[in-house]
Amino acid sequence: MNQVPTVKLNNGTLMPQIGYGVWQVPDAEAERAVTTALEAGYRSIDTAAVYGNEEGTGKALAGAGVPREELFVTTKLWNAPSETWGRDNVLREFDTSLAKLGLDHVDLYLIHWPRPMREDFLAIWKTFEEIAASGRAKAVGVSNFRPEDLERLLAESSLVPAVNQIELHPLFPQARLREVHAGLGIATEAWSPLGQGKELLTLPAVAEVAAKHGRSAAQVVLRWHLQLGTIVIPKSVTPSRIRENLDVFGFELDAADLAALDALGAGSAGRRIGPDPAVFDF
After folding, report:
1. How many CB atoms lie within 10 A of CB 42?
2. Alpha-helix runs per DSSP H in 136-203
3. Three-state secondary structure call for residue 33
4. Which pLDDT tens digit goes with each residue over 50-108?
5. At 228, which helix (H) or strand (E)?
6. Is 136 helix (H, G, I), strand (E, B) or coil?
7. Is 199 left (phi over 0), alpha (psi -120 to 50) or beta?
8. What does the pLDDT read at residue 242?
9. By CB count within 10 A, which of 49, 86, 99, 157 is most buried?
């Protein structure tokens, strides 16, 4: 089994640097997929209320025979625009996620989107402070927050998010946001670390680095993330790829490899493939 390194979050919690993400995995398939990941050696599992697969994920966690203290489970509050997000609503959604997962606590609870035009993430965060203090989430954080969102949050709260989970890959390296995270003590976690679709993985620069190391394109991109210090949650439902994505510790990219992958996002701010947090409100 691969020995996955950990990242120490700003409250001392240790988080595996690579985990298994279940975005777009139907609930009926989640139990099998998460079980496969746990058998392969993953111990960090990332889900969310809006993914609709917390129950299947919970069944896999319960049936895997892995001690709870060895697991790191993340879920996220879907702060939908149809709701008014006061304390009671946040606690209700958190309790619902725990029940679906079959857990008495999670290791990380995130606000899924800032929705800055609604100006309610400050109120949500106050309840997250309460959840963190209760111990029912070992750490709390955010997802898709921009530098200005983090600045607003920290102007009102002394609790610094442990993690900001963001779109990040060689085509969209988010250098400025990573610098902000480093200055504040926030761990950077990448969703869709391999991009979406096959575009990134078929680029000549990626193929050349992969051929040099006798590795797959996905493995060298994940290795790029790990050497940046990023936490990653690659997703696949194919057992061989689930195992392959974890097998990224037996080699290291050199300076030329890193420069070749860095160059893919150079020039402009890079190319976002997911929603823009400044305007996303669905």
Report:
1. 27
2. 147-156, 175-184
3. helix
4. 999 999 999 999 999 999 999 999 999 999 887 789 999 999 999 999 999 999 999 99
5. helix 217-228
6. coil
7. alpha
8. 97
9. 49
The CA-atom distances, in angstroms, between 95 and each of 47, 92, 103 are: 15, 5, 10
Strands (E), the chain: 6-8, 14-16, 20-21, 44-46, 72-77, 106-111, 137-143, 163-167, 187-191, 231-232
Residue 163, number of CB atoms within 10 A of its CB: 25
Distance CA 234, CA 245 (A): 7
For tokens 């139907």, name the residue.
Answer: 26
- Give the pLDDT of residue 267: 66
Decide if pLDDT at 268 tops 80.
no
What is the DSSP code string of 54-87?
Answer: HHHHHHHHHHS---GGG-EEEEEE---TTS---H
d(CA 153, CA 145): 10
Task: Give strand pairing partners of 189.
Answer: 165, 231
The residues, any chain, with a CB within 8 Å of residue 24's CB and separated by 6 or more, are 51, 235
Q: Which amino acid is at 136?
A: R
pLDDT digits (tens, 9 = 90+) for 30-48: 999 999 999 999 999 999 9
* Radius of gyration of the chain from its Cα atoms, rounded to whole angstroms: 18
Token pair for 153: 């949050």
> Which residues belong to the active site?
51
| Beta bridge partner(s), residue 6 | 16
